Queue: 4 jobs
Job 1
Amino acid sequence: MTQFNKDYTSRGSDTFRESDSFDLEDRLRPNSYNQVDPFYDDYDPSYKDQYQIRRNYYGLGPKGYKRSDMRLKDEACLLLNQDPILDSTNIQIDVLNNVIYLRGIVDSRRDKKRAEVLVEDIYGIEDVQNQLKIAR
């Protein structure tokens, strides 16, 4: 039975001592944190091989699926509303055929770009037309 001792009294210390011991074999026994899921690994090895070579189908919805313009507008409004840096009170958002149109006035070029960057990664958006004007 291998014994390792570790001093936990000081932050970041890797000093081993006799007084604080734990059993290495106890740490290697399966528990709720390191137990392997038997569905994928133990019961059918051929399934595991098939599972590992499959494509990633994330984001591929049913044929013809499109998010509605209203849902895209709600998400864009929420993103602009929750941003702590951008003042979006003068920004108007319109969505038509999965294209977001940003209109209105912002304080700086940085704010104009930030608004565009915030909404361009929304799932289902095909394009962002940034028609924001910079206040002079």
Job 2
Amino acid sequence: MHRRITTPLALCLLGMLAAASTGCMTAVAAFQPEDIGGQTIVITTLDEEGQPHERVVTPIDDDGTLVVAANHWPRAWYRRALANPEVTVERGGETKAYRAVPVSEEERERLLDNSGFPKFAYLLTGFAPRQFLRLEPI
């Protein structure tokens, strides 16, 4: 019995070490959406040196307000938007300037409740806690 438990555990640990050594934190983080046939936007954030970085994300239409969620790793784009909230969004071939504003805790809870994804499932799937940014046109 002891061997049946330790063998899968050892294999799991080896897999985690291999993933960590290659820089891959989760399988989800290894593949970012391109044009997957659904509605996506490209958000461009700036780092400390002013260099642009693009990330494909799925927009949330919150009663006419554009919202984006930092769902999983990597989340560098989210940290850059917090540090420098002036972002651009390409949507449907058109690029516009926005200010990224963190939502209030009340808004966050409402958005989570409306997502339909059970909160406990985030822990089971390895997703980081969802954070949201409201994109206000400039």
Job 3
Amino acid sequence: MNILKVEGEKGRFFEINLEDTLQKKYELVRELRLSSKPRKEICAKYNYSRKTGNESLHAWKEKGWEGLKEKNRGPKSKSVRTQDIENRIVDIRFKNPENDMYDIAEMLKSEGYKISARSVGRVLSEHGITLKKTKKKPSPKSLKTKT
């Protein structure tokens, strides 16, 4: 366990568990607000950059404990595969079972949706629908180069 011992103003020591990010950020903010030491020095003590220290201080002022909690990173929702598109893919597949993921992707593109064949395949797999993995028909150009 990674523990940091800090001396308080009255000479008392207390321990900070550096593996607990919420406690670590709280102690950082507390010290930034109460100490007269330079911010860079305080942030370095907790292994944060000055920028992260300032962001944590601002988050504390704005939202309190909620501002210090770790936030989920990455996309918050599916950017291309919306529920509307997923429903449409499943609908096309059941109406035309002979179509593979490439055919369905082409149909959706002609309807104005922007989606790849691979995304269509993922949607079908997520819904438990087996799909034919046929490859696109080779273009006449590629046939000429093989002979």
Job 4
Amino acid sequence: MTGFRIVYRRPSSTLIRIFFLAAMLVVPVVVTENAEAAQQTSAQSVFRKCTNRARANCVVDGDTLWLRGEKVRIADIDTPEISQPKCASELALGNRATQRLIDLVNDGPFELQAWPGRDEDRYGRKLRVLVRDGRSLGDILVSEGLARTWSGRREPWC
């Protein structure tokens, strides 16, 4: 996995080796729930594509993920749909956006920043901006042609 460097001295046992190998699979996530209070919580997460039964730390599509059992909508972008695409090209681009989001959230620590003026969308998802090193992960998807900047409504992808 890129972005990680585990340095260790000669382990004295197999158990220690296993511990360090497992540590390479864990990504710290910094969550900022209230931007004004700057409250931060640390969590350890590895994200994969969501399945019907796994809804703890996973990616639903290019702009939605589950974090510790809470559904989060990435508020600053819109990506193509993969659950009900309107055409084959939307599905293909949506799958690429989903995989890229998985890669981005697993690349290292990031913050979840509250969306100004609105905590949840009409579906009950938390509205957050994912930020690493001062840059929105959504902006990265936009720059790679996998998302659009959120304009306040969905636009067609076909």
